[in-house]
Amino acid sequence: MTGVAVLVVDRVGRRPLLLGGVSGIVISLVLLGSYYLFLDDVPVIAVVGLLLYVGCYQVSFGPIGWLMISEIFPLRLRGRGLSIAVLVNFGANALVTFAFSPLKALLGAGIVFYGFGVIAVASLLFIYFVVPETKGLSLEEIEAKCL
To answer: Start and end of every Major facilitator superfamily (MFS) profile domain (predicted)?
Structure first.
């Protein structure tokens, strides 16, 4: 799916891939939460939810997140901005990794996946209302448009 994103990103645009992919992530997290809370006798739900999550992540946050952080910072701040963005990205990944097992033990897997679903809905709203489309724009045009 990352290959699909790479092939179509300049034709389709960053925002549509993000909006579509994150919408799929929301659906997959609802499926996974529902499996653990209500549908544990239907394991195909977990498999579909997991495959949908991975595919949607690979077409959206996976490649587009890295592409957009390289585009949105103005030239004079690009090095520092990229450094901070990468630090936040890896920090958030570490937080999710280290918090998942304790949260699962405390709340149960279903509630944890629903919680991640709420975070995904918040990211979807952020993308819809804040993230600009940069398709077909030079770095200078992006800087002028965003700042």
So the answer is: 1-135
